[in-house]
Amino acid sequence: MMRRTILFYLFALLLISCSTSIPESYTESQELPRIYPDVIDVTIPCNIAPLTFQLDEEADGMVARYQGNGVEVVCKDKMQPSMSQWRQLTAEAGDIDVDVFVKHGEVWTHHKPFAIHVSPDSIDPYLSYRLIPPSFVSYEAMTISQRCLENYDESVVYDNILCGFEVEGQCINCHNYQQRNPSRLQFHARQKWGGTVVAYDGHIRKVNMQNDSILSAGVYPAWHPWLKLIVYSTDKTLQSFHTTDANKIEVYDLASDIIAYDIDKGEVTNLENDTTELEVFPAWAPDGRTLYYCSAHYERQHPDKTDVAEMVRRCRELKYNIYKKSFDPETLQFGPRELVFAADSLGLSAALPRISPDGRWMVFTMAEFGHFHIWHHDADLWMMDLKGSEEVKRSEEVKNEEVNTSSRPMTAVNSPDTESYHTWSGNGRWLVVSSRRDDGTFTRPFFAHVDADGRCSKPFELPQADPDRHRQFLYSYNVPEFMQGPIEIAPQTFADVLKGDGEPVKYVQRLSK
Amino acid sequence: MKRFLPIATWLVALFIVAAALLYFETDLLWKLQEQNLFLDTWLFFREQMVVPGGLLSWAGTWLTQFFFYPWLGVLLLCACWLLLMWTVKRAFKVADQWSALMLVPVALLLLTIVDMGYWVYMLKLAGHAFVGTLGAIAVAALLWLFRVLPQRFGLRLAFIGVTALLGYPLLGIYGLAATLLMGIYVWHTDQSLWQKIVGTALALTGVVFVPLLCYRHVYYQTNLANIYYARLPLFVVSEEHHAYYLPYYGLALFFVLMVAWGEREFKGFRKFKGAKRGHIIVQCALVALLAWGVAHWWFRDENFHHELKMQHCIEQGDWQGVVTEAARQEDEPTRAIVMMRNLALSRLGRQGDDMYLFKNGSKHYEAPFGMRLMLCVGPLIYYHYGMLNYSARLCTEMGVEFGWHVSNLKCLAKCSILNKEEMPARKYLGLLRHTTFYGDWADRASEMEELKTVQRMMHYSNMLGDDQGNIERFLMNRLAESTYRDDEMFQEQTLLATLWTKDVNLFWYHFNDYTRMHPNARIPRYFQEAAYLYGKLHNIENIDRMPFDPSVRQSFDSFMQMASQYNKMEADIVRKGMKAFSNTYYYDYYLMRDLAEY
């Protein structure tokens, strides 16, 4: 009831605020307006929530106009079109022409017009993410939330306070889905009532993945596209803090492996556990026959030092490359590892490989060293043409450098600040990217269009009813994942499951059908 | 004239309370608003409303911000208490002769503020100072409404249901309390027996099931264990500290007794012979008891108040004020006090000559939980020592753990400005512009003189590590290891840090730099004492020919002579015996080692 009342008043407010008219007299300017969020020349899906913006400079007033499909929307102070107006504007693919008039004193200036390009390619209707303050140790306020991308509705999937607080607090992370299916999901809870929650078509269970034969419980997950199989990295993770460096923190693994978990049988097995390799971030190819992951070669050189002290000293040496393993869905057997992208040959380190649904493009994050690039200001997204790469490989005996020739930074998507976690939409035409371009500290999801040839458009920020919201919001959006629809399981149900005992896993040498 | 008696009694009592708060607790009141945040945004309102009773917190944070001007905050608090007394009097139809009885909830609510002590740094209940008062007013007002409702159409029964359904989401535990009290009060009404039974059953059902219903279907940010305590402060760190709930138990008892007593009994007392004198005596005794109780449970720890005063002075850039406060120290100080005092002395250019003239030590914080320097002044100390990454990190961690406060945002803004992180600075300053009193601060933040001084301390070399919560040790070690020598202030701090770390080699390294950088200046006393001590300890040739102040050698000789009498004795005994030398570095070097780190 309360929600409806609020929506009513919001709607009324929007009607009032968008019933203004453009100034009668003004001077022309060839400069684009300074607005926030930046929606200038962005490409948007036809089903996205209304794009709002506000002026990003001191002024005495602003009037903005959206025009498209024979519809005109004029708002003052903040551009906040109503849902129905927006639906008319985006009813057909094409451009929404935008005019911004800014008032200084008594003088109005009409800035250089720009367009918002409406793509016929739709986007998955839901996005889930973890909302977490940009802290390093504390986790008293943390939720996994979901947002309808077609409007502004946001709801909580799970809040860590439901299970405990203070010294009995709980950290939650790594929500992940099988093919963006909201009824097939998993996430981890750490510390009090810790375990991995796995929900599969209405059956929810808590799994205790700790086992003496594996390095740790599962960490970074990758659901097989159709099998009830999740591959995880297992990580002994630590963090250290910079006294003066702008990156503030380094998160690194002292050891890490790759394991596979059979959901039905409750079995785990090691896939990669070379002690001189740090393997992390598994990701399946959409055909379910190839597993990608990152790995850095690391050997102890100073046995006189503790492993932590040595790692702290040498963490800049960690250069992760991208590898792959073949997989037979019939026998559940994996092949040997093959190099896919040698980031170290470029003096860089690659993380988070994600393969497009058509299997052609691999997008990954690159920075100078390490794998936890969200805390690296130099982190950028790169894209590799897997088809091109295969052709290069087939043509001749190749060196590492040549494997990399079909890779390039995604300059249209990247910003001067951090770009890190990213996921493909179901149709492969959209990429959601975690970026800190707004302020260098708080992560926000941005969406970029990617066409069939891998060309990217300028990304736009997750739309908000109040364009100032992200300026006021003290949480980061962590691990944005597309979903085909909303998660229907109540947060309290997850809490009830977590408060129970976790099902133990059984270690096997090999998975079998 | 008689009808003004209640209000006159209350006003006199409130005047005394206000005067006491303003005289004894100005710094606590300042801290309360620094540990508070109210933003005039829709997002802030929504964020408060995601927990039961969020409206109380929202209103509480709005009122708490007025402690920016302590007199204004106190005025509002007293106005609320006046309203509470008036509402309670109306709700229970208390006769004028019993006006002093209304002081009971006020005294209890006053205690929730003045007995909190170190919880001021830890308490997570937004708007705590006002939440109890507003909740109590709401309870009394709802009971009053309940009482004056006509008996027709089952209105009272409906009102119990509505109070349970709406009271809990809006007022948390206070909504439940009002419902429960109505369930008792209904027995004083002229309802029929079955209506009374239904009323009580309805109230009990509402109190038990509405929170459960809300837990399942409305809220997701309340732990099941705490759903019945919504908007009560939780005095929990690793364990529950029940003593701090006593004022709340008292408040509950007061309301239960008032409801159970009913109005008839108040009237009945008048029938007794000598009732007039009797109720005056009873009320005087009650006031005396309340005054004694408040005085007894008022948290008067010396160090706690010194810490608050020093933080307040530092915030105002009043370094002399910090030193003046340090001079008033009688008890063994906490390390927070020692660090703030040394910081002030360094800003005044007196640390090398004066820092051992004050009391030294490492007293534990008078808190029932493991209070640490980090929680008390961690971000402030890191900031003023120029280690901004750590200051910003602590601000963020504490913002997450205890809620975002004005103090976090101010500190984060200053760190961002100094780190030339324009966009984060803009974000924090933008948020502060949404507060009532810190917009001006935000407007002039980037021109603050203080930033120039802190900038002179930003010469650490980068290192990956962790302070493990031991701020003083971490800072002193980083300073002592620093080799930057282009700023006199920073270089002096590196030398001072070696006095703390007692690392002889690093001392000589920095001492040589210091003497080169100040060729014709007098060497501060404690640098001389350290040089002379280390020279003697390591048999440096010609140490006696160096130009030390004569008193440095004299005090060293005297110290050593007396120390020989305490050979192999317990450190505490030696400290007491050699107290006369506590103003020397020798004393610090030998007797102030291995202090407990809180």
Descriptive overview:
The complex is a heterodimer of chains A (513) and B (598). Chain A has two domains: 24-119, Immunoglobulin-like (Sandwich); 126-498, Neuraminidase (6 Propeller), CATH 2.120.10. Chain A is 11% helix and 44% strand. Chain A has seven helices and 36 strands. In chain A, strands 1, 3, 5, 6, 8, 9 and 10 form a seven-stranded mixed sheet that branches. In chain A, strands 14-15-16-17-35 form a five-stranded mixed sheet, covered by helices on one side. Chain A has a five-stranded mixed sheet with strand order 18-19-20-21-36. In chain A, a hairpin with a 4-residue loop joins strand 20 and strand 21 (267-272). The radius of gyration of chain A is 24 Å and the shape is globular. With 598 residues, chain B is mainly α. Chain B folds into three domains: 2-297, no CATH class; 303-455, Serine Threonine Protein Phosphatase 5, Tetratricopeptide repeat (Alpha Horseshoe); 522-598, no CATH class. Helices cover 66% and strands 0% of the residues of chain B. Chain B has 30 helices and one strand. In chain B, helix 2 (26-34) packs across helix 14 and helix 18 packs antiparallel against helix 19 (388-402). Chain B is elongated. The model of chain B has no long low-confidence stretch (mean pLDDT 93). At the A-B interface, strand 13, strand 19, helix 6 and helix 7 of A face helix 3, helix 19, helix 21 and strand 1 of B.
